[in-house]
Amino acid sequence: MKEHVMHGLRVHIHKDMCCGFGNCATVCPAVFQLDHETNRVKCVDCAPIDVHADAVARAADECPAQAISLLIADAAP
Ligand code: SF4
Fold it and tell me: Model pTM?
């Protein structure tokens, strides 16, 4: 599982659950990108997750494998 944190939002991609259909990359290409070598999705490096929070949430909702979790990150210590 890979985790990306940006401005209070945390995205988990459960790669073992990802089927590689790419719905998330279609819904939110600024954050999700299909890795054609592994046929799994990955987060775009330095993706502005907070700016695309609505699209990220929609991508998580529309993932047929429920492989994306979107959480509110804890406040920094
Ligand atoms: S929508 Fe879900 S199953 Fe499809 S590529 Fe994205 S994370 Fe993987």
Answer: 0.81
